[in-house]
Design a protein that fits this description.
Blueprint lengths: L27 E3 L4 H10 L3 E3 L14 H17 L9 E11 L2 E3 L5 H11 L3 E12 L4 E13 L4 H9 L20 E5 L2 H5 L3 H10 L9
């Protein structure tokens, strides 16, 4: 999928969705198949291409959790960057999101029963959501990463409510078996932190990482 094109645009163009002028911005490769992350790129008016990283999403248990998530995001970005021809090296963004409750890490559920067990654990509790991003541009010697930790509180859920939510299939491909931007919001009593990070892409951190690495987001006239 292509969000905008090409890698370096000489004449100013305008994003049809948000009206942002993308003239001098360079294409960013999003190393993720997440629809939510694609939507954030479109909202920001960033030219992008999607090349999902093909690797096992295993966390390094020797690191603190937020550092392990950052490392995995970096491994995703490196994996995709390594597939690019030397003359076509460009910006690559890797990302990963995990949920943690009382020391237990929740990734994406393997099936419906796995999702049920996750929801049973999370309902009536507050848990951490850690989203990490890593920005790479080998041509510019850029290798950077950061993360955000937010807190989400769930109301208690009955068995019928859990079954109803499972029937929506929103749990598929979602860390912790829920999507806060969807029907799971019916059961969210409070969030403390970044909504965009809970969805999967911490926008403040994303803005900061682009800025400190001189990505030409502002040079788009």
């Amino acid at each position: 999928m292509v969000g905008s094109s090409p890698a370096s645009v000489e004449n100013a163009t305008v994003c049809k969705k948000c009206g942002t002028r993308t003239g001098n911005m360079e294409t960013i490769i999003l190393a993720s198949a997440s629809e939510q992350r694609k939507t954030f790129f479109e909202i920001l008016g960033l030219p992008f291409r999607v090349i999902p990283a093909d690797l096992d999403e295993n966390l390094d248990n020797s690191l603190e959790l937020h550092l392990a998530v950052e490392k995995l995001a970096m491994e995703k970005a490196k994996k995709v960057s390594s597939t690019l021809e030397k003359t076509k090296k460009t910006w690559v963004l890797g990302a990963d999101t995990v949920i943690s409750l009382d020391g237990t890490v929740f990734g994406k559920p393997q099936d419906r029963e796995h999702a049920r067990k996750m929801l049973l654990s999370l309902q009536g509790q507050s848990h951490k959501v850690i989203s990490a991003i890593s920005l790479i541009n080998e041509a510019k010697n850029v290798l950077d990463c950061c993360s955000n930790t937010s807190i989400v509180s769930f109301s208690p859920m009955t068995e019928d409510e859990i079954n109803w939510y499972l029937d929506t299939n929103e749990w598929k491909g979602a860390a912790g078996a829920y999507k806060i931007q969807g029907l799971a919001s019916c059961f969210i009593t409070n969030i403390n932190g970044s909504y965009s990070s809970i969805v999967g892409l911490p926008l403040k951190e994303f803005y900061d990482i682009l800025k400190r690495n001189s990505y030409p987001y502002w040079d788009n006239a």
